[in-house]
Each structure stands twice: as structure tokens, then as C-alpha cells.
Amino acid sequence: MIVIENASEILTIPHGYNKPKKGNEMRDLGIIKNSNIWIDRGKIIKITKELPDKIEEKIDASGKIVMPAFVDPHTHLVFSGIRDFELSLKMQGKSYLEIQNAGGGIYYTVDKTRNASEEELYEESSKRLEYMVKHGTLGAEAKSGYGIDIENEIKMLKVIKRLSENYSIEISPTFLLHIIPKNREEKEYVEYISDNIEKIKDYAKNVDVFCDKGAFSKESTELFLKKAKEQGFKLKMHADELEYIGCSSLIKKFDFISMDHLLKTPDEIINEMSKKNTVAVLLPGTPFTLFQESFSDARKFIKNNVAVAIGTDLNPNCYTENMQEIISLSIYRMRMTVEEAIVASTYNAAFASGLQDKLGSIEVGKDANLIIMDAKSYTEIGYHFGVNLVTEIIKKGKVIS
Ligand code: NIG
Ligand code: FE
Known about the structure:
The protein is α/β, with parallel strands linked by helices. It contains 13 helices and 16 strands. The chain is 32% helix and 22% strand. Helix 6 packs parallel to helix 7, helix 11 (323-334) crosses helix 12 (338-345) and helix 12 runs parallel beside helix 13 (347-353). N-(iminomethyl)-L-glutamic acid binds at residues 76, 105-106, 109, 210, 238, 241, 286, 313, 315-317.
């Protein structure tokens, strides 16, 4: 038996009814104080004040908290090249779309990614994955989207697959319909992708689409989602980030596992979302790195009983792998409580990624995918910001770092 001993707090985040947590449920961390976690063959066996007779290995958590490892429900983990040079453009007041329309932004990364070999992409992305693990993330969703033709999208998805096989992170792979190639018409391009989407089946579980001004229209999005749904993909959407052009209203026609960004979502749609188990994935790093004053209205989503998760949006515009930073931004810029931010970065994030069977809570019978944090109480998380509080990362009962 492996024992994690004497934790000052264990945040179990108890299981609901196999649904993401909404409203006040997001404040329930299921805290157990001054206890031990017994682990056998990678699984959690017991949470108790007692110790077993036979102990193979002890992991000391005295004066620290134990919680489920983070899940990052929205990443563009695989890409080539960074866009540090855009920071000065953004500082001069250039908007995301101005930079993109001048050939920068996503287009810049598309060129770099298409020109990179699978090996080069793997090398670059594995470094990011190591940062994720170091900061306590053991589950993530990862998107393609910078290849823009089927061949290059598959190249990206193969890299995602190799990364998930070779590292400790559980990855949920997503095909992302990201941007219209410069020399193509939207309609013709969306038909080409939709007609070929079955070729992606071996590589991705989910599809996502950037539905917004400057990206795909509501009509194109609907056409693509219909085809993807027929092929059995789970659905996600980048919605209402820059403007509301009706994208999130597609909730009335489709079941999404998540809708992401949601900065301009009207009240009526928030109400529609509350009727379903679609997770609102809020990404405060994005407005933060775009020098924007306004963030998603997390309070409104939670008050209206929508399940909320938070994620990094890791990409060359918003360059962080650290979920603890996102918890701080969620508290300070979206006014989420620390309890809500913890549930949003673990339990609900696991649902938004389809990883809830493996991650997101500490429960008897579940894999022991946990982190130990250098904090006496969970109230220090997010409050103590800009540092890495993770001291141990435990994947299936084994300390990995
Ligand atoms: O989620 N909004 C669209 N896509 C990404 C950004 C990708 C990029 O800028 O390279 C996002 O923010
Ligand atoms: Fe994104």
C-alpha cells in the first residue's frame, strides 16, 4: 500500500451524479482534514485517519493539501514558433483581428506549423507539456487547427497522440476548424473539411470550430457540426469571443460538451445553456493577454446554473501552461470564489474534456491522479499567486516529479 500521509486538507471534490457541477455545487470541495489516502495498484482505496498494516511507500503531506491534479480543458498545445513580437503591436493598440488580417496571428502560426516536420512539432510541444505537468496538470484537451488542410491537421493530431503515449498527461484530442485559408472561399473550404472529416476519426475524439467575426460564420459552423456529429464526434465550439454573431445560439440545435470563451454571450443563451450539461469553458488568459478590460461574466454563468470550467487557452497569443495562474485570474478578474475556481479547474474541466472517469476528484476506486500543494489550506490557492505551489505530482499512485 502507498500512503499519502497526514494531509492538512484533502479536497475530494465529491462526485455528483456523473454531471458537471453547477451553481452552489461549485462551492463544495468535500474537504477532509488531517487524514491519509491509501493507494493500491494506482487506485484510491481509502481516505482515513488510520494507517494500513503494511506500507510500501509513504508520501508525507504534513502541513500541505492534497487535491485532484488540474485538467486544462482548452489548449492549442501543438504549434511551431511563438509570437512574442506581437506583444509590442498589441501594446500599440492593434486588435487581435487587425494583427490577423495583416497576416499575423493565427496565419503566422499556420505557416510555421505547416513548414515544421512532425518531429520538430513533437520536440517543441513536449517542452510545453513538461511545463504543464510541473504546474500540476495531468489532464488536458489539445487541439489541432494550425495545419488547415487534412494532411497537416493529421500531422498535428499524430503529434498529440505521441505526446499522450509518452507523457503522464491524459490528453483528449480535438480537431479544430480554425481559420479560412487566405486563398480560399469559406463555403468551399468548409465543404472540403466536412467531406473529409471521417479521415480524422482515428486521431480525434472531439471537433471544435472557431465561430466568430473574422473566422467561421454561424451557417458554416452548423454545416460542419452536422457532418461531424454524423461521424460520432463530440462537439465543442470557440464561441462569442470577439463578437456575438449567433454562434452560441447553436446550443438549441446541438449537444456540446463545452462552449468556450463566451465573452459576448447574451442572457437568453446563458439561460439555454443552463438546461443542458454543456460546460462553459472560460479562458481569462485571453482577454488578459489582449489588453482587454472586459472578461467573461463568470458570476452570471454560475448564478444561472451553468457549469463553468476554466482553462489556459495555451496558444502563441496567450502563452501559459500554468492552471494556477488561471485560477488567480479567475478570482481577481472574473470574481470567482476560490472554491469555484478549484472545481472549475479540476472536476468541471475533466467533464469539459471527457476525462471525468480518470480525473477531477479524489474518490475510492478512482485512479490516484493527485497533486500535493504547499499550502495549509485551499484558501491560499490563487491568493498566493505567481508561484508554483505544487510540490509532488502523483500519477496513478506514483510520484512522477
Ligand atoms: O482560442 N480564438 C481562436 N483561437 C485561439 C487563438 C489562436 C491563436 O491566436 O493562435 C484562441 O484564442
Ligand atoms: Fe482556443
